[in-house]
Design brief:
The structure is a single chain. By secondary structure, this protein is an all-alpha fold. It has 6 helices and no strands. Helix 4 packs parallel to helix 6.
Length: 159
């Protein structure tokens, strides 16, 4: 009987993984926060640009799906830029608009006042100081009321 033996070579990656070192979770989180802080001003610029573009969209004539797609894209961009910085009220307002656009019946004209109101609400949320929690909550509650009125059955299970 013949026995074949192989010289097993350890991969460089397995050697690195098994060695102590690197950074601790706490240090990594601090570095991530620091990196995010440098992007916060740019995020605000993006949000303001997207809200301005949303407000500038002309009301479509008839059931123009392209205008709704543009409004949805601007709202999604607000969510993308605000989410990493925990700007939850801006995200909630933009999500509300996306939900209204998603729930709009196809082939029927969309009430464009909804887009206008959401753009104005987003501008208001941007201008309010972070300490104005009650005012922010009132704005978001009003937007949720629009969602409930336009799409029955949405938001009924929320507290």
């Amino acid at each position: 009987m013949t026995v074949i033996t192989h010289n097993r070579r350890r991969s460089r990656l397995s050697t690195l993984v098994n060695q102590p070192g690197g950074v601790s979770v706490g240090v990594a989180l601090d570095q991530a926060r620091s990196n995010l802080a440098t992007l916060k001003a740019r995020s605000r610029e993006i949000i303001e640009t997207q809200v301005a573009a949303l407000a500038a969209l002309p009301a479509p004539s008839g059931a123009d799906e392209g205008a709704l797609d543009q409004a949805y894209a601007h709202a999604s961009a607000v969510i993308d830029a605000a989410g990493p910085f925990e700007l939850n009220d801006l995200c909630a307002a933009a999500v509300n608009l996306c939900d209204l656009i998603d729930g709009a019946p196809e082939g029927r004209p969309f009430d464009w006042r909804i887009v206008t109101v959401h753009a104005q609400a987003l501008r208001l949320l941007l201008s309010l100081p972070s300490e104005a929690a009650d005012a922010r909550a009132k704005v978001l509650d009003s937007l949720k009321d629009v969602l409930k009125a336009k799409i029955p059955g949405v938001g009924e299970g929320e507290a």
